[in-house]
Sequence to fold (120 residues):
Amino acid sequence: QVQLVESGGGLVQSGGSLRLSCAASGSIFSIYAMGWYRQAPGKQRELVAAITRGLRTNYADGVKGRFTISRDNAKNTVYLQMNNLKPEDTAVYYCYIGKSTIVTSPPDSWGQGTQVTVSS
Fold:
């Protein structure tokens, strides 16, 4: 059973930065793709960024150039560095581990979510 625990959310002003972390348990972490989704109130959950074990990445168009996903396989942790945050980035951010090793792998397990709020 894989467990994912997120941290690093909070309240920040527009233009500010936050760094999210997701610590995973279980050896499966080092093999499969991982990433982040987010869900704003009244909206569907959407992909933010994904990364493979080989560090191939994929980003949603709205965050390209502002967000950076990374992972440390030795620490079983994936990160999301978010810069130049905008009010529309406000959402609950969920870490996930994919069903396979490819960057477009659909999610298999989720973390509990961490709130990110960006004030204007």
